[in-house]
Structures are given as C-alpha cells and as structure tokens.
Amino acid sequence: MSSTPTIVVVEEDRDRALAIVDALRASGDCEVVVIGNVSGLARRIAAHAPDVVLIDIDNPTRDVLEELTLASGPLERPVAMFVSGTSSGLARTAIEAGVSAYVVDGFQPERVMPILETAIARFQMVRQMRTELAETRRALEERKVIDRAKGLLMKAKGIDEEAAYAVLRKTAMDQGRRVADVAEALVTAAGLLS
Hints:
This protein is of the alpha/beta class. It contains seven helices and five strands, in the order βαβαβαβαβααα. It has helices spanning 14-27, 41-48, 62-72, 90-96, 112-157, 161-175, 179-193; strands spanning 6-10, 31-35, 52-57, 79-83, 101-104. Helix 2 packs parallel to helix 3 and helix 5 (112-157) packs across helix 6 (161-175). The longest helix is centred in the C-terminal third of the chain and has 46 residues, at 112-157.
C-alpha cells in the first residue's frame, strides 16, 4: 500500500459519509473519496484505483455485491463492509465477492480504523495464500510435463529415468532455458509426431 493510502468510501447518506471521512482523517494521513451512489459501482471504484474500499450500506443487495465483485477485480484490494442487519447467506456472498471484513451492526467512527486494519491484514494473508497456491499448481503442472517428457525419452532412447532427466537438464542448460520449457517443447513435438 502507498504511503498515503487512497480510501474509497461508498455511502449514500451525506451525514454518515462525512462522519466516516472525519473518522478516517482523524486516524491518519489518507486521501478519501466518497461515492454517494451505488449504481455503476465497479466503474466508479476502478476510476479512483483505491488502496482500500469501505462500504457502509444498510441492506446490501446481490446486485451491489456483484458490482463489488467486479470492482474487486478479482480481489485486487481490501474491502470492509458495514451493514445494519443480517440477511441469510449475505455474509458468505460478500466474502465470496471479495469483502475482507463484513461488520454487522453498522458503522461506528471509533471502529473504522481497527476494522480497516483487520481487512487489510486479512486481504494480504489471503492474497499471499492465493499466490502460494498458484505457484504450487504451476510447479505441479511443470512436474507433470517433465515426467511425461522423461517417459518419452526413456521409451525413445531406452534409458532410465535418471538418464532421461539428465538429457532434459543438459538440453536446458545448453539452450539457456528452463527444464520445464524444454520438457514442454518435447511433449508438444511428440504430440505433433504421433
């Protein structure tokens, strides 16, 4: 997050919006932008490229949550949502839409910064887990391709698995490429020849 964070506040009630802005500015240096109408929410939030989004809404509708999903694009920034009451399944839908903190019982100025800090921390934790998951999936896919390429080499050259990997590794080093890239090229070429 930048040194002076930009916070978009989505609040239709002018007095409540002012109370939120005052609470945010009292808590530290930040740029605050207020969006007073939820129509076209995704486009309007994206136009400001905020670091954090704070939404104070009495009863969020599924349409608002869909807009929020688009605005989170997916999950680009922490979002804290203050709601007045509960609705069956809405908290889960909000979390799936990218909300990092879903607070029932509405907005209270003294709770804003601790909740935003919690939303930011949770967002960063989830983003790190998603990154690690994506890296793990990529590594698994690369391992599968390397295993397939080793199998092709073992069959074509009549060599064992260790020797097949050595061929892949040497080829990768000679060409200045990654082993997974050489394996992918071999598997692709074998698919074309069969």
